[in-house]
Amino acid sequence: MYATTDTLATTPATQGGRSRWLALYTLCAGMLMIVLDVTVVNVALPAIQDDLGFTSSSLAWVVNAYLIAFGGLLLLAGRLGDLLGRRNIFIAGLVVFTVASVWCGLASSQEVLVIARFVQGIGGALTSAVILGMIVTLFPEPREQAKAIGMYAFVASAGGSIGLLAGGVLTQAISWHWIFFVNLPIGILTVALALKLIEKDKGLGMGRGTDVPGAVLITAALMLGVFTIVKPAAELGWTAGRTVALGLLTLTLLICFVVREATAANPLVPLRIFRSRNLSGANLVQALSASGMFGIFFLGSLYLQRVLGYDALEIGLAFLPTTVVMGLLSVRYSEKLVTRFGPRRPLIAGLLLVTLGLVLFTQAPVDGNYVVHVLPVLALLGLGGGIAFPALMGLSMADVQPEDAGLASGLIGTMGEVGAALGLAVLATLAATNTTGSSNPLQALTNGYHFAFAVAAAILAVSVLIAYFVMRPAKTTN
C-alpha cells in the first residue's frame, strides 16, 4: 500500500514556522515556472512559425507535445512522489524541465523543438504533481493551510496571464528563443533553494507498493486520450473514424486500469479515494473549469490579436488585470473567506462570477473597446478565479489521508490538464466551424469566438451545479 503516516512524519511538516513559508515560496516558484510556460509559448507561436517554417496545422504540436507528456504523466508522477519522496521528484522535475527549456531555446528545426517540448512536459509533470501534496503536509493547521493553498492557487491559475505578458515582452524585445532561455537561471535558483529550504522526506520505496501494470495502463490511456483530443478530434472532427477508434482504445485502457486497480494488492490509485464526495466533485469541477478557462485565455488572445489588432505585448498587458485581481484575492482574502464561510460557498460564488464573465464575452463586438468590452470580462475572471480556485484546491485535499497526498495532488493536476486540453480542442474547433454568418471576415471570426465563449459559459455553469449538488459543506475554522 501507500506510505504510512509514520513514514510521512519525516516530511517538511516538521519544519519551523519561517522555514515552512520559505519552502512554500520555493514550491510556488517552481509551479510558476511550469505554468508560465504554457501561455508564454502561445504568445510566441507566430514568431516560432515564421522562424522555423511550421504550417498552421503542425504549429499546434509545439503546444500539444507538451500537453500530452504533461497530462499523461501527472498521475504517475504524484504516485512516484509517495514512493520516492516528494522533494526528490520535485527537484528531478525541475532539472528535467530546465534542461529541456535550454534545448527548446537552441532548437533550429521543427522536429527538435517538438521533441524538446515533450521532454519539457515530462519535467513539468514531475515538478507540479507533488506540490499540492507537499503543501498540505507543510501546513496541517487549517487556517495556515488555507492561506498557503491560496498562494499556490494564485500561482497555478493567474500564472497563465503573467505568461502572456512575459511572452509578449520577450518575443517582441529580443526573440522567441528567450521565452525558453529565461527558465535557466530561474530553474537553477529554484533547485538551489529547494535543496536548502525543503526538508527531505522518506518515501515508501520502489520495492514496495509499485503497481507497474497500473502505471503503464493509466499513462498510456492519458497520453492517448490527450493525443486524440488535440490531434484527430481537432483536425478531423469528433465523428471521424480515426477519432472514434482512438477514443474507444482510450476508453478500453481506462476500463482495464479500473479493473486492475480494483484487483491489485498494491494499486496505483486505490479506488477507495473516490468515496470522498468532495474529492470526486473537486476533480470534476477542476476538469470543467480548466476546460472553460484555458480555452478562453487562448481564444481571448486570438480575439484581441486577429479582431482588435493587438500585438504580443499589448495582449499581455490586456490580461494583466486578471492577474492583479486574482492575486489580491488569492493571497490576501481567500483564507479569510474560507475560514468564515467554508470552502464550498466561495467556490460556488467564484464559479458564478467566472460564468458571468464568459457570458459578457459573447457580447464583445468586432470593433470592441477594451475598457468597455474586455476589461469587465477579465476583471470578473480574476475575481471569480481568485475566490474559487483556492477553495477548490482546499476541497480537493480536505478528506485526503497523508499517505495519499501525492496521489491526490497528481489527480487534481491531471484533471486540470486533461480538461484544459479537451477545452482547447473543443472550443477552438467550435470557434473555427462557426466562423460564419457575415461577408466581413472579422465579423465572421467574431461570430465564431462568440459561439465558443457561450459554450465555455455553459461548461462553467455545469461546474457550478456539481459544486452545489455533489460537494458537501466543510466545517469552518475559528
Automatic annotation (TrEMBL):
TM spans (from-to): 21-47, 59-77, 89-108, 114-139, 151-170, 176-198, 210-230, 236-259, 280-303, 315-334, 346-364, 370-395, 407-431, 451-471
Protein name per its UniProtKB record: DHA2 family efflux MFS transporter permease subunit
InterPro entries given in the database record: EmrB-like (IPR004638), MFS (IPR011701), MFS_dom (IPR020846), MFS_trans_sf (IPR036259)
Coiled coil: none
Subcellular location: Cell membrane
Record-linked SUPFAM superfamilies: MFS general substrate transporter
GO molecular function: transmembrane transporter activity
Principal location: membrane
Phylogenetic placement of the source organism: Bacteria, Bacillati, Actinomycetota, Actinomycetes, Propionibacteriales
Residue intervals of the Major facilitator superfamily (MFS) profile domain: 23-475
Protein's membrane topology: Multi-pass membrane protein
Keywords assigned: Cell membrane, Membrane, Transmembrane, Transmembrane helix, Transport
GO cellular-component term (any): plasma membrane
Originating organism: Kribbella albertanoniae
